[in-house]
From TrEMBL:
Listed InterPro entries: ER_ret_rcpt
Gene expressing this chain: ERD2
Membrane keyword on record: yes
GO molecular function: ER retention sequence binding
Identification of the protein by name: ER lumen protein-retaining receptor
Listed GO biological process terms: protein retention in ER lumen; protein transport; vesicle-mediated transport
Record organism: Coemansia spiralis
Cellular compartments annotated: Endoplasmic reticulum membrane
Coiled coil segments of this chain: none
Membrane topology listed for this record: Multi-pass membrane protein
Regions that span the bilayer: 6-23, 39-59, 65-82, 94-112, 148-168, 180-200
One GO CC term on file: endoplasmic reticulum membrane
């Protein structure tokens, strides 16, 4: 644990609290991609199966339980109480290609050739592209409410801070390497490039999130 990882984890937690608060307060999931939320639920399920087999720390265990529970709760809200406000037409990204691609990479380039490690690798590869349906939906509409923008920014910021965490660990720990996480994290952060630009130039200046015409 270091300050960069802690800050990243807190930002990740913050993104989830922002989204849940937005869904509960507006009683609408308009502008939120159910496909992205479903992918994150799949990411956490396949990554945290070790909850049943190993114990690292209370912090680690509580974080895993929170991410699983919160992802399940968000999907429940969007498929249950808020289902009427969900726009399936706008949320049309073909996620099966993302899942299949992550599965192929996990089988060809796993961390280790064991079931849990293959599933862990799958979750890492899938997380790197899980935001694509949300970004695609925002591209189709050309805009997003500011709360949703804050949520997406917090997600991107969390991953960017993890890259700093990896750099810090590389120079302070002996024999530290995690090429799968590094490569996937860089890809994931790069996907936020255009979003970050619009967020800093518009949203942080009090304007609404709108893509250039």
């Amino acid at each position: 644990m270091n300050i960069f990882r802690l800050a990243a984890d807190l930002l990740h937690l913050g993104s989830i609290f922002i989204l849940i608060a937005r869904l509960q307060q507006t009683r609408s999931c308009t502008g939120v991609s159910l496909k992205t939320q479903g992918l994150y639920l799949l990411v956490f399920i396949t990554r945290y199966l070790d909850l049943f087999f190993s114990f690292v720390s209370v912090y680690n265990t509580l974080m895993k339980i929170f991410f699983l529970a919160s992802a399940g709760y968000i999907v429940y809200l969007m498929t249950g109480p808020l289902k009427a406000s969900y726009d399936k037409v706008l949320d049309s990204f073909r996620v099966e290609y993302l899942i299949a691609g992550a599965a192929v990479f996990a089988l060809v380039f796993p961390h280790k050739y064991t079931l849990l490690e293959i599933l862990w690798s799958f979750s890492i590869y899938l997380e790197s592209v899980a935001i694509l349906p949300q970004l695609f939906q925002m591209t189709r509409t050309g805009e997003a409410d500011n709360i949703t923008s804050h949520y997406v920014f917090a997600l991107g910021g969390y991953r960017a801070l993890y890259i700093i965490n990896w750099i810090y660990r590389y120079y302070t720990e002996d024999d530290y390497s995690d090429y799968i996480a590094w490569a996937s994290g860089i890809v994931q952060t790069a996907l936020y490039g255009d979003f970050f630009y619009i967020y800093f130039t518009r949203v942080l200046k009090g304007k609404s999130f709108k893509l250039p015409v």
